[in-house]
Amino acid sequence: MVEIYNGGLPVEEIFSKWYRLKWGGMLLTFTGIVRDDGGVEGLSFDIYEPMLNKWFSKWEDRVLMAHSQGNVYVGETSFMCGIYSKHREFKLIEEFVEDFKATAPIWKYDLISDKRIFAENRSKKLPNAGILV
Amino acid sequence: MERVKLKVLIKFLGPVAREDLEVKVENSEELKNIIKSNLDKKWLDVVAIAINDNIVSNLNNIKDGDVITILPPVCGG
Asked: What is the total count of domains within chain A?
């Protein structure tokens, strides 16, 4: 299951929890921090949890993941993933993040003057998009 | 003979969010038209559709009780 939080992620808490899950080998984590991007106050997210967990089930024996819903302001963290393994897994984390970006049912908005503006240009069509046409 | 109507629930997610629609339709063409009439035109060629949380490549096999989800382009992280 993906760990979902309202607002910014409690990074230290999540990290220390993941760190204590297993012993030995390595824990590789990726932390996505909201950047100051041309007048944007932050980001906001909608998540469709049933499909997110369905998608994540093919990863969850190898990957840990936490994500925010609602508003996350500049400097706060909206996304964390981690891989626990005996050896380094740089390729796996890359593959995971690529698949996450392309298919996880999450919608992103820029927060500008407290309004949510859908991040249309950064969003990717899901497989089989366009069947209504 | 009275035609069989299928009751389905339509959920609109993310930037197209609105209240769920519970509708009775005879076939997939009718369902498609209802979805289209509840979406701004600009979304038509970019949304994907899931039936019971599985993305589908057509709406031909709808059944009574199905949940239809309208999924705009995504961007997590």
From this structure: 1
Query: How many A×B Cβ pairs under 8 Å?
Result: 104
Task: With beta carbons under 8 A apart, name residues in chain A contacting B32.
Answer: 132
Q: Under an 8 A CB cutoff, do B74 and A126 touch?
A: yes
**Extents of the domains making up chain B:** 6-71
Residues A109, B12 contacting (CB under 8 angstroms): no
Nearest CA in chain B to A66: B77
For residue A16, the enclosing domain spans: 3-121
> Is the CB of B57 inside 8 Å of chain A's CB atoms?
yes
In this structure, which topology does domain B6-71 adopt according to CATH?
Answer: Ubiquitin-like (UB roll) (3.10.20)
- Residue-wise DSSP of chain A: --EEEESS--HHHHHHHHHTTS-SSEEEEEEEE----SS--EEEEEE-HHHHHHHHTTTTTTEEEEEEEEEEETTSEEEEEEEEESS--HHHHHHHHHHHHHHS-EEEEEEETTEEEE-GGG-BPPTTTTTT-
Q: Could you report the predicted ipTM of this complex, rounded to two decimals?
A: 0.93
Q: Is the pTM here over 0.90, yes or no? A: yes
Q: What is the pLDDT of residues A49-107, one digit of tens each?
A: 999 999 999 999 999 999 999 999 999 999 999 999 999 999 999 999 999 999 999 99
- Residues from chain A that touch B56, judged by Cβ atoms under 8 A, are 128, 131
